[in-house]
Design a protein that fits this description.
With 860 residues, this protein is mainly beta. A hairpin with a 2-residue loop joins strand 19 and strand 20. The chain is 5% helix and 54% strand. It has 2 domains: 81 residues, Sandwich (Immunoglobulin-like), CATH 2.60.40; 599 residues, TonB-dependent receptor, beta-barrel domain (Maltoporin, Chain A, Beta Barrel), CATH 2.40.170.
Length: 860
């Protein structure tokens, strides 16, 4: 308890000190400056009706607002001179006009905008760290609009982006591990270890620093206005964790006083009769969500406060979960040129620790997968393990437009991440097999050397991280043809873990380690001609830990008669040996220079071409360096683990054929070197009823040279004002260039049982999505969306030459209806997985079947 209070005190002291420092840096507002007001209305060119929710901004200032239900807007404290007023909203062509503002006077400006495809109307921030029009972006970016985010009640980040081209979300279920890959950036590893995608909330990092995991299903979107997904080598601007891409979530701030609340209730339908799970017998699992929020913009102050609570019985055994989430965003406009903004949240989730689903063996030893909504009760009585996650962010951002050409953006932040597994079940294992009348209870200790990873009653594994960071960015428009961006950032993270540390750790016993990161970056946008623009950037990163050696109990496999691993018919299987070991860490710090060259050629007003090349790197995470206990298995730390690197190429084209059709296509090629990946050693065979099998352990190594290339397409169609259609498809070819069949004998023999041992784990060859929205009137909208994923060719553990029961190979459709009986009320009816398709995203972890949801939202 004292340790927790100490961490909270340090966090408070850090944030308070940073706030005081930023307050001293803030110039006093110039109350004597001549200002005026701009008022007007934004209307639809087609029918003359007011456009609700359009963003209206004053160029060269921090001033902005949004239109009300009738399309009206008001901009106050606008500096008195000629001003450029810009308007943007998803689904309409961006527009701008010049207006003259006089001191103490109100200027009137009405702007008419025309509808276009959603993709053509997007304004992107993340590609260059400042706003760019879709036709100007030199890399591939996808935008998820506020309307898309809120198509479903209680949307989470994973659901909001799962149909973005090139994005693959892999979930085990409930609050347990998930991972996100962009263009095959990473595999699925327990706890999301080694995620090569960086996630931000209002520009502040939200990945768990110990693993890199983005717990997508726990990031609630009720307070989000927009999501950007940036693809390719993004480490030049965003650092080590972004070598695969970036996800930026932008939080909500209101333009007027608002009170909003909502609730939804749903249930999971029964699985098909072919599934014999007992979990669903005489039981219908329910889930519900409620939220309430308040916000206002009054004078110089703007704030938004939102609380969300959700409960879920779980669609399968031990996937129940509960969430409480609070988000506060606060902005103070010092004057038209500068503001101070606070972004903060705290979320707490608790639920079951999901295990692989149950399986039985026939008398011949064949697997029978017919109880996918139960867990492996026949082999491990773990149905009451729990997982608790706590995540917090406090971020302060100060922005000052120092002049028409120079702006300053500074930020400081604190994040807290804690993940705790409580092992509550009996200290033993139940087995059933053709060889024993079952079930039979086998007492076990759960320590290394016991032949199992089960844990004693009352034990726990816990990892927490306190991260402190700061950054500064200068944006200088040198002239009409040249824009230079310069920045410095860094962070310090203190870790406590029972699973990963340079000192010996075990359940209930913490070890500690500290990680530091520092970086400097420079970007130059040069307009070479009226049509050709280049974006040249370079970043230097350094990452290091405060340890130079690691002490642990080294696991090794001793095969029978010291020969190669036997096949399944051979008994005994060999054994694992355990030796106390201390080794020097070869790379306690790593650094890298990451350059990028990007070009955009705007051939016409409605077509642009882009090309880019970049280099990225990723420092190994604390878990990749030191993890010894993965919950279900044990492993060795790797004192020789080094950074991994990637070279990335991309070419693409965006074409707007008309205000009704737009199309984007991109080809990409990524080469990875020293790819960090878990490897299994020992004997990987399994015979139920024989507690000596399997005999395996893992280690994270720089094992691979890999190549991933692919083609990505995205088509937007708006045949009329009532219809909007989007279709996307990605082909990906992911190969392990260093695959050597002869090396399989030294490993657990699992990979060679895959249909394609040279294919990279968990990279689907084909993915596709479709989204259709019909709005017959302003009061009704109908949405149908679907996604497809081909069967994986290579997985990690439960391998089979025929690919039997492999994840993927599914088509899932969702359908929803929204009704607006009044402008303050929205009713939602949703059916997820309409076809009740039985599928897996992670091996031996069943995904949800069909579910029904009804919700109501109020906004005043």
């Amino acid at each position: 308890m004292k340790a927790k209070h100490a961490h909270l005190y340090r966090a408070f002291r850090f944030v308070f000190s940073a706030l005081c420092l930023m307050t001293m840096l803030v110039p006093l507002p110039s109350y004597g400056a001549d200002t005026g007001t701009v008022k007007g209305k934004i209307t639809d060119k087609a029918d003359g009706e007011g456009v609700f929710g359009a963003s209206v901004t004053v160029a060269g200032t921090t001033l902005g607002t949004a239109t009300d239900m009738n399309g009206n807007y008001t901009l106050q404290n606008v500096p008195a001179k000629q001003q450029k007023i810009s308007v943007s909203i998803v689904g309409y062509t961006p527009a701008s006009q010049i207006v003259t503002v006089s001191p103490g006077q109100t200027a009137s400006l009405n702007i008419t905008i025309g509808q276009t495809t959603i993709m053509a109307s997007e304004v992107v921030v993340g590609a260059a760290l400042y706003k760019q029009d879709r036709l100007e972006v030199p890399v591939t970016v996808n935008v998820v609009s506020k309307e898309k985010i809120h198509q479903q009640p209680n949307e989470s980040l994973d659901k909001a982006i799962e149909d973005v081209p090139g994005v693959v979300i892999t979930r085990a279920g409930g609050t347990t591990a998930s991972t996100m890959q962009i263009r095959g950036s990473n595999t699925y590893q327990g706890g999301g270890i080694g995620t090569r995608v960086q996630a931000f909330y209002d520009g502040f990092p939200i990945n768990s620093p110990e693993t890199g995991e983005i717990v997508t299903q726990n990031i609630n979107m009720n307070a989000a206005d927009k999501i950007e997904v940036l693809k390719g080598a993004a480490a030049t601007l965003y650092g080590s964790g972004a070598m695969g891409g970036v996800v930026n979530v932008y939080g909500h701030l209101p333009e007027t006083f608002e009170v909003k609340a909502g609730a939804s209730l749903g249930f999971y339908d029964a699985p098909p009769s072919s599934d014999h799970s007992v979990y669903r017998k005489d039981f219908t699992p329910m889930f519900w969500n409620t939220y309430v929020g308040i916000g206002n913009k009054s004078g110089k102050w703007t704030y938004s406060l939102l609380y969300t609570h959700s409960d879920d019985d779980g669609y399968k055994r031990n996937s129940q979960n509960e969430m409480n989430d609070v988000k506060l965003k606060l902005r103070y406009d010092i004057d038209a040129k500068q503001y101070l903004q606070l972004t903060s949240y705290y979320d707490y989730t608790s639920g079951g620790y999901t295990q692989a689903y149950g399986y039985q063996f026939s008398p011949t030893g064949a697997r029978m997968f017919d109880t996918a909504f139960d867990i492996a009760l026949s082999t491990l009585n773990s149905f009451d393990d729990t997982l608790t996650r706590k995540n917090a962010l406090v971020g302060l951002n100060y922005v000052n437009l120092l002049s028409d050409k120079l702006s300053l953006d500074t930020r400081v932040f604190y994040t807290y991440n804690d993940s705790r597994i409580e092992y509550n079940y009996g200290a033993g294992r139940y087995v059933g097999s053709p060889f024993f009348p079952g079930p039979v209870f086998i007492p076990i200790s759960g320590d290394q050397g016991s032949g199992t990873s089960a844990k004693p009653v009352g034990s726990f594994n816990d990892t927490n991280a306190n991260r402190y960071g700061a950054g500064i960015k200068l944006d200088w428009k040198a002239n009409d043809h040249n824009r230079i961006l310069f920045g410095v950032d860094g962070d310090i993270t203190n870790f406590q873990s029972t699973q990963a540390a340079p000192t010996p750790v075990k359940i209930n016993v913490f070890g500690t380690v500290q990680e530091k990161n520092a970086a400097v970056f420079l970007q130059d946008e040069l307009k070479i001609t009226d049509k050709l623009t280049s974006l040249l950037s370079v970043r230097y990163d350094w990452s290091g830990i405060d340890a130079d050696h690691v002490s642990f109990t080294k696991i090794a496999y001793l095969p029978p008669n010291y020969g190669p691993p036997p096949d399944l018919s051979t008994i005994p299987f060999g054994k694992l040996t355990y030796t106390p070991t201390t080794a020097n860490i070869a790379h306690p710090s790593v650094d890298a220079i990451s350059p990028r060259v990007a070009l955009n050629y705007k051939a016409t007003d409605d077509m642009s071409f882009r090309a880019s090349w970049g280099m990225s790197f990723r420092a190994p995470t604390i878990f990749e360096r030191f993890v010894t206990d993965a919950g279900f298995a044990y492993g060795n730390p790797n004192p020789n683990l080094n950074k991994e690197t990637m070279q990335s190429w991309e070419v693409g084209m965006f074409k707007q054929f008309s205000d009704k059709v737009s199309f984007d296509i991109a080809g990409f090629l990524n080469y990875y070197d020293n790819l960090i990946q878990a490897r299994w050693f020992g004997y990987g065979g399994y015979i139920v009823g024989l507690p000596g099998s399997p005999v395996t352990y893992f280690e994270y190594d720089n094992v691979s040279r890999a190549r991933i290339w692919g083609i990505e397409t995205n088509l937007n169609i708006r045949p009329s004002n009532e219809w909007a259609l989007n279709f996307a498809y990605t082909y990906m070819n992911a190969k392990d260039l260093s695959y050597d069949p002869s090396s399989e004998d030294a490993l657990a023999g699992l990979n060679k049982k895959n249909p394609d041992p040279s294919w990279l784990q968990y990279r689907p060859e084909h993915t596709a999505s479709a989204n259709v929205t019909w709005k017959p009137s302003s009061k009704i909208s109908v949405n149908v969306n679907g996604r497809y994923m081909s069967k994986y060719k290579n997985i990690a553990q439960y391998t089979d030459k025929t690919g039997y029961n492999y994840p993927g190979d599914f088509i899932v459709f969702d359908a929803g209806l929204k009704i607006h009986p009044a402008k303050e009320v929205t009713l939602t009816f949703l059916c997820r997985n309409v076809g009740n398709v039985m599928y897996d995203e992670a091996e031996w972890f069943r995904s949800p079947g069909r579910s029904y949801v009804a919700g109501v939202d109020f906004a005043f």
